[in-house]
Design a protein that fits this description.
The complex is a heterodimer of chains A (240) and B (234). Chain A is built from nine helices and ten strands. Chain A is an alpha/beta fold. The chains are: A alpha/beta (240), B mainly alpha (234).
Chain lengths: 240, 234
């Protein structure tokens, strides 16, 4: 469903991604792990072109994302994203955060958008907070709203950029729980994460990145149980 | 005060000129400010554009206007630009308002630029990741947040403009200061008319300060509307 070919990304002189080839199939949950600075967040941000790519190609359902003729806004509407810092819109209450994009882009009526929003907020366990503002919510609650906001566009896939890294430990679980349920429903997900437990339990594939390359990839059992590459072994030895 | 022998009845005798002066000062300031907001917003957005052909003209305009005295701009527009374009002077209102709009816009552009750039990058990214265009993201996400932060500096700019509008005296626009000058000349009494002009400007700026403080208070600190806050408290 998402195909990445020979992806290179440089920030000025610094080459962060040095040729990534990967394919994500429908309904797959792919967890991307690796040390800081390995390029995993940049990799994720290239998929919906939040970073312009230096070389290579990305296809989402056969449409070349980095083609100048492609309308990137249409692609982004189909691929949700959840950020480390949540990035809820602080001037809107929770339900407005969720309905804004469906109304703006899908031209959904307010009534329909609100019905959808309530349904999604129930799903993430926060319908009671629909009329609160982001600053009144805890980090874990904000991140669950951010997931509902992404879901409101009915995306074909969701990109998660270290969704639990900015959370207090006791809030990590509630967010992972919501993500796990999404995975069980068959959502296609790419998750950059430091939560090895989540990668192991929920991931269909695990990708280990280091130094701008995909060093190793496989099922969680293969990668965690029997890593072949020395760098993978060293990394897992430190984090597990 | 005996030394100066102030005769305040001079002001009363010429009250019509002062009333008109206040009207002209307010007209010039409000027109200049409103135009300056609209044009300033466009210039400010231009200055955060990634397109070079939009960025550079905006940036150069703002630097040119901020780098030259308003008095010089006023005289160029009134005595050179308009007569050259139209073949005759367009009068003090056209020249005065044009100058104030063009000048105020340059200062407001900097306020808009700084306000927009002060909003965390993640806000734009979140909006774009949902599929919003750059323009939609600006309208729905960035500007509503940035505008709150711009209220104090935009208020300062209004007060600065109110005072700077007195420069139009040199093209014989009958504002507060011009009235004082005429009265001082006619009565050979400089103290009363000029002191009274200062007093009038003080009243106007003080009133404006109070209104701005009220707006600031209403929109500062929290995004949560007071009625929602009340609901929470209970």
């Amino acid at each position: 469903m998402i195909k990445i070919e020979n992806l290179h990304k440089s920030f000025g002189e610094l080459e962060v991604l040095k040729g990534i080839d990967y394919e994500i199939h429908e309904k797959q949950v792919v967890c991307v792990i690796g040390p800081s600075g390995s390029g995993k967040s940049t990799f994720l941000r290239c998929i919906n072109l939040l970073e312009d790519i230096t070389d290579g190609a990305i296809y989402i359902e056969k449409v070349k994302v980095n083609d100048p003729k492609t309308n990137i806004n249409e692609i982004r509407a189909e691929v949700g994203m959840v950020f480390q810092q949540f990035n809820l819109f602080p001037h809107m209450n929770i339900i407005e955060n969720v309905i804004m994009a469906p109304m703006q882009i899908r031209k959904m009526s307010r009534a329909n958008a609100e019905a959808l929003a309530h349904e999604l907020l129930k799903k993430v366990g926060l319908d009671s907070k629909a009329y609160n503002y982001p600053e009144q919510l805890s980090g874990g609650q904000q991140q669950r709203v951010a997931i509902a906001r992404a879901l409101a566009m009915k995306p074909k896939a969701i990109l998660f950029d270290e969704p639990t890294s900015a959370l207090d430990p006791e809030m990590v679980k509630e967010v992972l729980e919501v993500m796990k349920n999404l995975a069980l429903e068959g959502m296609t997900m790419i998750v950059v994460t430091h939560e090895m437990g989540f990668a192991r339990e929920v991931g269909d594939r695990v990708v280990f990145m280091d130094g701008g390359y995909i060093v190793e990839e496989g099922t969680p059992d293969e990668l965690f149980g029997n890593p072949r590459n020395d760098r993978t072994k060293a990394f897992l030895g430190k984090v597990l | 005060m005996d030394l100066l022998n102030l005769q305040w009845e001079v002001i009363w005798n010429y009250r019509d000129m002062f009333i008109r002066g206040v009207g002209i000062t307010l007209l010039l300031t409000l027109a200049g400010y409103c135009g300056g907001i609209v044009l300033g917003l466009m210039l400010g957005l231009g200055q955060v554009s990634t397109k070079k052909w939009i960025y550079w003209p905006c940036k150069i305009y703002v630097d040119l206007v901020r780098g030259t005295p308003m008095l010089v701009q006023l005289l160029i527009i009134h005595l050179a630009l308009f007569p050259t374009i139209f073949g005759h002077s367009l009068g003090y209102l056209a020249s005065g308002i044009t100058t104030l709009v063009l000048n105020c816009a340059a200062y407001n552009a900097e306020i808009f630029r700084a306000g927009i750039q002060s909003i965390a990058k993640g806000q734009m990214e979140a909006a774009r990741s949902l599929g919003l265009t750059h323009g939609q993201a600006m309208r729905k996400v960035i500007l509503p947040q940035a505008l709150r932060r711009m209220i104090p500096p935009l208020g300062n700019e209004f007060i600065a403009l109110l005072k700077d509008s007195s420069l139009v005296m040199v093209i014989a626009a009958p504002d507060i200061l011009y009235a004082s000058k005429v009265i001082a000349g006619a009565t050979f009494r400089p103290w009363e008319p000029y002191l009274f002009a200062a007093f009038l400007y003080l009243i106007l700026t003080y009133t404006a300060t109070k209104i701005i403080a009220f707006i600031e208070k209403r929109y500062s600190n929290s995004y949560i509307p007071r009625k929602a806050k009340g609901r929470l408290a209970r």
